[in-house]
């Protein structure tokens, strides 16, 4: 069981640090919810469920832990305003799926958005996700 109050406190701290460092408060941010599972098939089922809710999915990676065991990790991704309530709502939506799958939620992350950038780092349309990728679910 995850402590939502603790997750909200972490979310607020991340946002405050980004804004204190000068990140653009009005930008759209790529929010990556990090998940891990020892069973690839169960991770795959989890991300299919998240995809059906409208999230994008990063390619799953195999990672060897210090003890030699293998885990599979990926990100459940969205593009939203940097808003604690929106991120908390996403966590409330995703955590039941993560728990049901027996996966581990490893928090979320994003990237600094320079308010003085001359151009959008995601291309001319300012979109992180390509529309042509909408029909694909990249797991392998």
From TrEMBL:
Residues 9-110 form the Regulator of ribonuclease activity B domain. Keywords: Cytoplasm. The keyword Cytoplasm applies. It holds the Pfam family RraB. The keyword DNA damage does not apply. Residues 109-140 are annotated as: Disordered. Residues 115-140 have a biased composition (Acidic residues). One of its GO terms (molecular function) is endoribonuclease inhibitor activity. Its main location: cytoplasm. Interacts with the C-terminal region of Rne. Belongs to the RraB family. Globally modulates RNA abundance by binding to RNase E (Rne) and regulating its endonucleolytic activity. Can modulate Rne action in a substrate-dependent manner by altering the composition of the degradosome. This is Regulator of ribonuclease activity B. It comes from Mannheimia pernigra.
